[in-house]
Every structure is written in structure tokens, then in C-alpha cells.
Design brief:
By secondary structure, this protein is of the alpha+beta class. It is 19% helix and 58% strand. Strands 1, 2, 3, 4, 5, 6, 7, 8 and 9 form a nine-stranded antiparallel β-sheet that branches.
């Protein structure tokens, strides 16, 4: 009887999780339709929920992204994104779990052949758990960035170049750090292909 009970419980849990994910997607679609009924046809509105996941032996990472986009004019678009990230690394004594929340606002100006974006991102809750020390609150991270997005090949390919400056303030950390503030300059390249 126990051999049959475990697969049945796993099957029921899997079905309920899939149902709750489908319900969440339909709630997002209904919210988008409701908000679009109040916005005009000349300024389209978009609401999307994206889940990214990677997993291999000893490592598991997930990212949930809720994005709101509002086009105000044919040349100006505003995006607001909320991220929830979590990851697990299982490697014996070096095992760790990481969780973070991020909030980002990006304003885009469409210049015809390319788009320019200015962004501001804040990561106020970044927590790491390790077996040796328990939970550690990492410093609040603030990022300012400039993006240039260039579509080509009939807009099916997009190259995005970003210049970012990320800074941390040690006042929000749970551990005493040897520095009060720190900055990191980054140059990013992203190439995307639509299928």
C-alpha cells in the first residue's frame, strides 16, 4: 500500500502546483485586460510574468519576473520590473541558499534604428544562508545603467549593450564589513534571437 501511496501523493501535489501556476497566469492575463480597458488604444499596456529556471547536479536556480510596460508615446516607453530570485548550491559543507528581491524601472526612448534606456535597480533584500553561519543579510545594492538596444535581421535579432554602475551600502548588512560603501562598474553584452 505504501508503494502506491507515495506516487499518488506526488501526482496530486504536481497537479495542484501546475493548476496554481496556470491560475496565476490567468490572473495576470485578466489584470492586463482590465488595465487595458482603462488605457487608450494609443498607449498600449503590457503585464507579463516570466519564470526562468536552471538546474543541474548540486545547483538549482529560479527567477520570477513580473514586468509592467506602458507606452506613453510612439518614442517613449516605461517599464517597471519586480524580481524574486532564489538559488541553492549543495556541495557538502559549502552548501548555501541565496534569496533576493529586486525592483527596476527602465525608461526607453525609441530613436528609430535603436533604443536607448536609462535604468535604476534596487536590491534591498539579499539573503544568504550557510550551514556554518546561518542567515546573512547582504548589503543593499543599487544599480544605475544606460542601455543601447539595436535590432537587426528584420527585428528577429537584438543586441543590447549596457553600461552599469552597482553600489553597495554596508549599513544594511547583518555582518560588520571592512568597508562602508563599494562600487562596481560593468559593461554587458546580450544577444537575443527570436524564433
Amino acid at each position: 500500500m505504501q508503494r502506491l501511496t507515495k506516487p499518488l501523493v506526488v501526482l496530486c501535489l504536481g497537479a495542484s502546483l501546475l493548476t496554481s501556476y496556470a491560475a496565476t497566469a490567468s490572473v495576470i492575463e485578466k489584470a492586463e485586460q482590465w488595465l487595458n480597458s482603462y488605457s487608450g488604444h494609443d498607449n498600449p499596456f503590457s503585464l507579463t510574468l516570466t519564470k526562468n529556471k536552471i538546474q543541474f547536479k548540486g545547483c538549482k536556480q529560479k527567477q520570477y519576473q513580473l514586468a509592467f510596460s506602458q507606452q506613453f508615446t510612439s518614442q517613449f516607453n516605461l517599464e517597471a520590473v519586480v524580481y524574486y530570485n532564489k538559488g541553492r548550491l549543495d556541495d557538502g559543507v559549502l552548501s548555501q541558499r541565496v534569496r533576493s528581491h529586486e525592483f527596476e524601472v527602465v525608461s526607453w526612448w525609441d530613436r528609430g534604428d535603436y533604443r536607448v534606456g536609462l535604468s535604476h535597480k534596487v536590491r534591498p533584500r539579499h539573503e544568504m544562508r550557510v550551514p556554518i553561519a546561518g542567515a546573512i543579510q547582504l548589503p543593499t545594492s543599487t544599480t544605475a545603467g544606460v542601455y543601447v538596444e539595436v535590432p537587426f535581421n528584420d527585428n528577429s535579432h537584438i543586441l543590447t549593450i549596457g553600461a552599469l554602475q552597482e553600489s553597495w551600502d554596508s549599513d544594511s548588512a547583518s555582518a560588520t564589513l571592512p568597508w562602508r560603501t563599494s562600487t562596481d562598474n560593468q559593461l554587458t553584452f546580450q544577444y537575443a534571437v527570436a524564433f
